[in-house]
Amino acid sequence: MTQLTHMRRRRPPLLLWRALFLELARLLLMAEGVLLSITVFAAAIRPLASGQIGPLGALKFMALASIPMLQYTLPFAACFATTLTYHRLTSDNEEVAMRAGGVSHRSMLAPAFGMGMLLMVGLAILTNETNPRFFHMMERVVKKDAARFIVGPIQRGEAARLDDLLVYADSAIRIDPDDLPDAAERTTSGLKAYDLLVLEGVVVVTTESDGSISADIAAERAEVWLHAGVIDGQDTTVAVIRLRNAVGENQGVGSGEGTFTLAPFEVPRSVSDKPKFYTTRQLRELYREPDINAGVDRRRRLLAAQLVTRLAEEEIRASLENEGRLVLTTEGGDRLIVRAAGVTDAGGALSLDPSPTSGRIDVDWRRADHGSRQQNASEAVLRISTDPQASAAFVSLELGDVKNIDSNEATLSELSWSRMRLANDPAPAVFGADSTSLLGDADVILASLTGDGKPRDLVKARNNLESRIDKLRREIVGQRNERLAYAVACLFITLTGAIMAIRLRDAMPLIVYLWSFFPAVATVVTISGGENVSSRNVGLGIVVIWGGITALASYGATVYLHVRRH
User: Fold this and answer.
1) Which of 86, 274, 419, 462 is deepest in the core (most CB within 10 A)?
2) Burial of 399 (0-12, 13-18, 19+ CB in 10 A)
3) Are 550 and 526 in contact (CB under 8 A)?
4) What is the pLDDT of residues 504-532, one digit of tens each?
């Protein structure tokens, strides 16, 4: 009894644990250095070959990439270190001596378990807090020049992707806007361009979230104006594309030709669009407030533009029906008071109904310099446009057969004003609303309409925003599970390497390593694949992510039980 009690109280083999742990750490550092050198070099090849970075930029990029790449290299380096350490332990019969001295297999595996726990905690901190910050710095190195982001793919014969826009072109050249004779062209929506790209033989394709094409435009020439801006406290680039001699088609139901100016949009930054570049705290905030995401915010503004157009039309109708007049303000400060009986839809525009008494539309033009002019016209058309970047709605007025009542000037065949604002402009409030409010407003409007009366553009904008938010939240859930799974997998991969080395004591080291390497590869593949599946089906994605780890743990446990039994 005394001997049994003494055996139960035997002190742990601290000296052996220390020797094994130090050997594990030495081999881990050696293997990690080799694997990390290979992976960071491979990561820098693509941006270097595409011209996004130069030789010095490649060195800086590799130095920054060395930290995030630890997420992928540490599990395999740990597997290699434990395999060699414990294979040497068994091949030199040290394992037999330890067993003869009363050291159990569980006690032998304690250093591997301790190393695995340290790596698990380190990877958890690395993936959740450190990696996103280094991805930010890597992004600034690669995409410091936004023009290269567009010109590079085109010069390689590929399409430049700008969010849900694909731009193809035969050629692309850069021009300094300061060299243009007309400096006014440099300003769009209040933004001053710092760079200009001229594209020849252009095709612009708009894609849906499922990859289908919703609109395409072919143009002889395109001008891409790049403007500096700040979004969410970060420097960014806003692009405006102006298409010349263009022919476009929208979902096969409508077409047009001429000069098109696409709505301003942000040149995509992977740090703003992909959840993997957010810290854990930022992911929680992003889940609650998806409008922080650049892709979601762009779709929010497009839906807001559709709602603003509809509200502005309702404001015009209500003003004419209740007051018999409409007050518009020009950018120069002039006021136009338009008097008409009402409005009639005219294929994307509003035709003003003339007064029953005079049979014409009256316009009181009050200038900012205190001058005024009284005019009337036999016909008038209002067109509503929105600028999502400026968060504003604009109204243009086109008059036909214009007579000057207060002067003897000749009758004008046409007279027009553009970029005028309504007295009660709904745009600031609508563009300032969040996605949840806008989706609710859109649902209320669509619920009041039936059948073919639902505006197709409004339905499309609403569905695009909702699907993008849902996809983003699924990606966030998948990303958080992937990070935790990588950390947990590192522990099991480390233990599996040690267990297989004890199990296959008579095999060659390479054979032993392969028996633990391939299960580790399968686990990493399922984790990454599960994260991708989560963007489509979050439940299935989580099952795939943790299914790989469960399989690896079962594999290691089965081998360990065999070792204990024999």
Assistant:
1) 86
2) buried
3) no
4) 888 888 888 889 899 999 999 999 999 99
